[in-house]
Please model this.
Amino acid sequence: MANLAPQLGGAAVAPLANSTPASTSNDAPTAASNDQLAATSPSTALPYLARSYAFADYATANNWIGGSFRPGSLGRQLPVDNPRYGKVMGQVTLSDSRDVQAAVDAAKMALPAWKNTPIKERAQVMYRLKALLERDMDELCWLLAAENGKTYAEAKGDIDKGIECIEFAASLPNLAIGGQADVSRGVNCETTFEPLGIVGGVVPFNFPIMVPLWMIPNALVGGNCFILKPSEVVPFGAMRLAFYLKEAGLPDGVFQTINGQQPAVEALVDHPDIKAIGFVGSTRVAHLLYARGSALGKRMLCLGGAKNHVLVVPDADVELSASNIVASSFGCAGQRCMASSLMVAVGPTGRIIDAMVATARKIKLGEDMGAVISTVAKARILRYIDEAEAAGAKVLVDGRGATVAGCPDGNWVGPTILDFVRADMPAACDEIFGPVLSIVRTQTLDQAIAVENANVYGNGAAIFTTSGAVARYAVDRLEAGMVGVNIGVPVPREPFSFGGFGDSKFGHGDLTGIDGYRFWTRAKKVTTKWALQADQNWMN
Ligand code: NAD
Model:
């Protein structure tokens, strides 16, 4: 079995501890209702339970407004598929501006008390939230596997990385103390960070827990009320977050969710009482929303798609490079914004490519690698492979036609490696967002760097080499916000912040770490002079 675990959570880290499922993997696809699961749950109050890869039906994901669930005003729902089975597992409610207004009304009630709660007390909610996620980790992993198609280990990486963001926010009382200094005799300047008020987040399907937690903890500890628009494709994990935050002691109305699609998102962006929006998703939508919100004078930070290049030079370590690149390209079925989707092989790198092919062929679909999110995504991915082959690329590992026993209708695409892709082919330029690694060959490192710099995205890039000088040369020249050396998924871990360059990010600053806190707050500068007045002071 191939080890894709080291980089599955998006973070470039050592293998995740304890990533073995507590339940059996690949259970027979017997259907179980959520009520049946609830009967055996340690936390029976929580909905959306999961115990294994077995198919289960779920109650509708409604909106979480003012501390209770309610359906969206449109009175319509959208089916949610389980990608492993290619089968509807539940419904998500659709919302519009009326639901956003209801959430804003509830947030307005909650905001005064929450923003006046001392930051140390606000941070206590994060300690409790972390404990609750750890308590229910096993079950939550299975839930993410069900709604997203991830493997159990990948789901655990998703939650583990989310917990790191919670830990960071819990430490904000120690970090976010502002500053003060006497700037003249008797004159003091002080900076403090105030909440913006009501803020919102719009998130993609690929990390149902981690990406919301890039935003929610920093925004809440910063004293804001937060309205989340989960991905309509994976709404259930976010519903669980709502429960956990309530159980952790967060007052009603401070965290809320609005489910749905474009109308719900646009209502959030347009609402005059929502002061800032964090967005993570495709570049097309990131750019649209950034322009829309900015035109309204709103604070916007919109993270978009990616085409991450990994440069490999002849002196690179064969095993380290092969295992890292394969894990980066095929972990989460390639549906990571930090996946290496284009390798630039500089000069004679055949031994490394051979090792990658051997490693990729060992990946067991359904166990080491999950399904892609939808039939539409699968068709798109297969089209890119077909077109690249027709245009002259050589298919070294072919994921077309892959199936998994017991799940014949799942959205399966196996690991695919395309060699001799030209830099101008769609497979080299577009974000495919699936388990496809394209290899472009160059003769020199400068040519490889030029290929990377010519792409419009700039999320991540990496170089594999045993030479410090080569690494430094590349790091200084690669146009990407997050650069790795001998690391396939160079996601900065907390407290370092996450964010790309180019079309991978619209807006200033990063979304996690201290930049995230700054995004959700505004600096107030107070200048104070308390000089003794000789003529009118009680002291004389
Ligand atoms: P998406 O852009 O389709 O959807 C993201 C969110 O935007 C969803 O909540 C969706 O409901 C909403 N949305 C979709 N179309 C909209 C529209 N026209 N107007 C308003 N809102 C709209 O993205 P996705 O398919 O869910 O996620 C995959 C994408 O996310 C990939 O491009 C991936 O690279 C990107 N991503 C980026 C990062 C990053 O940090 N840069 C992280 C994770 C994912």
Residues 202-206, 211, 229, 231-232, 261-262, 265-266, 280-282, 285, 289, 303-306, 337, 431, 433, 459, 500, 504 surround nicotinamide-adenine-dinucleotide (CB under 6 Å). The longest strand covers residues 187-195. The domain at 308-485 is CATH 3.40.309.10 (Aldehyde Dehydrogenase; Chain A, domain 2). DSSP finds 17 helices and 22 strands in the chain.
